[in-house]
Write a structure and sequence with these properties.
- This protein is an alpha/beta fold and about 375 residues long.
- It folds into three domains: about 150 residues, no CATH class; about 180 residues, Rossmann fold (3-Layer(aba) Sandwich), CATH 3.40.50; about 45 residues, no CATH class.
- It contains 16 helices and twelve strands.
- It has a six-stranded parallel beta sheet with strand order 7-6-5-8-9-10, sandwiched between helices. It has a four-stranded parallel beta sheet with strand order 1-2-3-4, with helices on both faces. Strands 11-12 form a two-stranded parallel sheet.
- Helix 1 crosses helix 15, helix 8 packs parallel to helix 13 and helix 11 crosses helix 14.
- The longest helix has 20 residues.
- The two termini are about 45 Å apart.
- About 35% of the residues are buried.
- The model has no long low-confidence stretch (mean pLDDT about 90).
Length: about 375
C-alpha cells in the first residue's frame, strides 16, 4: 500500500508525464547509483533528504548539463515550519532530533536543485524564498482511481433508506483537531436530525464530545485507498474541515477530488487549497464558521436534488481538470521548457581519428554552452576497454 503523498507526487505525476509523451522511471533514493544520472535529461527528487549519493548524483547532473528538480507537497523542508504542527510537540527528544535532522537534509537537497514542483500555491510561495523557479502541479486522480470510482458509482448504496450519512475521511491523527473545529455544528445537526449518521474513517480517535450520539456514529480504521471510492460513494455528504494554520494552508484538496469522483458533494473550510479549487454553491460548499456549517448541513440534508447537482458538477470539474490524462501536457511542457536542449552525436567508434576528434571537440563546446550532450555509438572498441 502506497502512502498518499508518494502516490500523488510520484506515481500520478509519472502517469501525467507519460500522457504528455515523456518517458520516465522511478528509483528509490537509498538505492541510487549516481552514474545512472547519465541516462536521463531531467532528474526529479521527491521530498528526498540529502545523502552523499544524492549529492554526487546532483553534482554529476550539473556537470552533464542535466536539469535537477525537487518535488514536495508540504512545508517539511525547513524546521521553522514544523513548529506549527501540534504532533511535533509530542515527539520525544531523540525522535525530535532525528526528525529535525531529516527536515534539514530535505532542505539541503532542495537548495541544490534548479527548480521545484509542488502541489499548492501556499507551498509555492514559501518555496520561492529558497529557490526561484517553482511550478505548481496540483494533485490529480490517476486512471486507476477513475476506474475504481466508476465501479463504485455503478454499485453504490444498492439499498436506499431515509438515513443521511455524513462522511469524514481523515488521512492522519492530526485531523482530530480539524474535526473539533465544527464540533458545535455537528452536535446541533445530530440533535436536530435523527436520521443523520456520522462515518469517521482513518487515523482518528472517537470524539468524546459526541459520546451521547454513539448510536449514530461509526468509526472505521485507515483503509487501503483502493477501497475508498466504494466507501465514499455510500455517504451522502463529504466533509473536510481544516484549522487555519500555515501548515494546513499548504495541504491539498485530495478529499474533495476523491469525493467528486463518485459524485458526492463536499462541505469544506473556506481556507487553503479548498478555497482555490471549490466553486462555492457550484462544485461544493465553503464554510467560514459553525453557523455556516450548520446551515449548509441542514440544506443538504433536506435537499437530495441539490446533493445530486453539486456532486455532478464536481464530477465534471474533476473530469476536465483533475486527472492525469488531461493535465499531463501542461506538466510535460514545463519539463521540456526548463530542461537543457539535448544533442546526440552518432559515432561509428570512439577510436580517436581526425573526424572523431572534431566531433568530440564540438560536443565539448556545446556542453560548455549549457547543452545536454550525448555520444551514441554502436559498440565499445575492445582496445579502449
Amino acid at each position: 500500500m502506497f502512502p498518499n503523498s508518494f502516490r500523488y507526487r510520484v506515481l500520478h505525476q509519472m502517469e501525467q508525464l507519460n500522457s504528455g509523451f515523456l518517458e520516465c522511471d522511478e528509483i528509490y533514493y537509498l538505492k541510487l547509483n549516481p552514474m545512472i544520472i547519465r541516462n536521463y535529461r531531467v532528474i526529479i527528487f521527491f521530498k528526498c533528504p540529502w545523502t552523499e549519493k544524492v549529492n554526487k548524483a546532483i553534482q554529476l547532473a550539473k556537470i552533464l548539463k542535466k536539469t535537477v528538480l525537487f518535488d514536495i507537497n508540504d512545508l517539511l523542508f525547513d524546521n521553522k515550519y514544523i513548529e506549527t504542527i501540534p504532533l511535533n510537540k509530542s515527539l520525544r527528544n531523540k525522535m525530535k532530533i532525528k526528525y529535525d535532522n531529516r527536515i534539514e537534509r530535505i532542505g539541503k537537497t532542495l537548495k541544490l536543485c534548479h527548480g521545484a514542483i509542488t502541489s499548492t500555491l501556499a507551498i509555492a510561495r514559501e518555496l520561492k524564498k529558497y529557490i526561484s523557479n517553482v511550478f505548481i502541479n496540483h494533485n490529480v486522480a490517476n486512471e486507476e482511481m477513475w476506474k475504481l470510482s466508476q465501479e463504485a458509482l455503478i454499485n453504490n448504496r444498492s439499498i436506499k433508506d431515509n438515513n443521511i450519512i455524513i462522511g469524514y475521511f481523515s488521512g492522519s491523527i492530526t485531523h482530530n483537531l480539524d474535526l473539533e473545529l465544527i464540533k458545535p455544528a455537528l452536535i446541533k445537526i445530530l440533535k436536530k436530525f435523527k436520521n443523520v449518521k456520522l462515518l469517521l474513517v482513518g487515523k482518528i480517535s472517537y470524539p468524546k464530545y459526541l459520546k451521547e450520539f454513539y448510536k449514530e456514529i461509526l468509526v472505521k480504521s485507515f483503509i487501503d485507498w483502493r477501497k475508498l471510492p466504494k466507501l465514499i460513494s455510500n455517504v451522502d455528504i463529504n466533509i473536510s474541515p481544516i484549522k487555519n494554520s500555515l501548515f494546513n494552508l499548504a495541504k491539498s484538496a485530495n478529499m474533495w477530488v476523491e469525493a467528486s469522483l463518485v459524485k458526492i458533494p463536499t462541505i469544506a473550510s473556506n481556507f487553503g487549497q479548498f478555497k482555490n479549487v471549490i466553486k462555492h454553491n457550484i462544485t461544493g460548499f465553503l464554510c467560514s464558521n459553525n453557523q455556516e456549517w450548520f446551515n449548509t448541513f441542514e440544506t443538504l440534508i433536506k435537499d437530495e436534488n441539490l446533493r445530486k447537482i453539486i456532486g455532478e458538477n464536481a464530477y465534471k470539474e474533476c473530469q476536465q481538470n483533475y486527472n492525469t490524462i488531461y493535465s499531463g501536457i501542461r506538466l510535460s511542457k514545463y519539463i521540456n521548457n526548463i530542461s537543457s536542449k539535448h544533442i546526440g552525436f552518432f559515432l561509428p567508434s570512439l577510436q580517436i581519428a581526425g573526424g572523431i576528434y572534431v566531433v568530440l571537440k564540438h560536443a565539448c563546446i556545446l556542453q560548455d554552452e549549457g547543452l545536454d550532450v550525448e555520444l551514441i555509438f554502436d559498440k565499445i572498441d575492445i582496445d579502449l576497454i
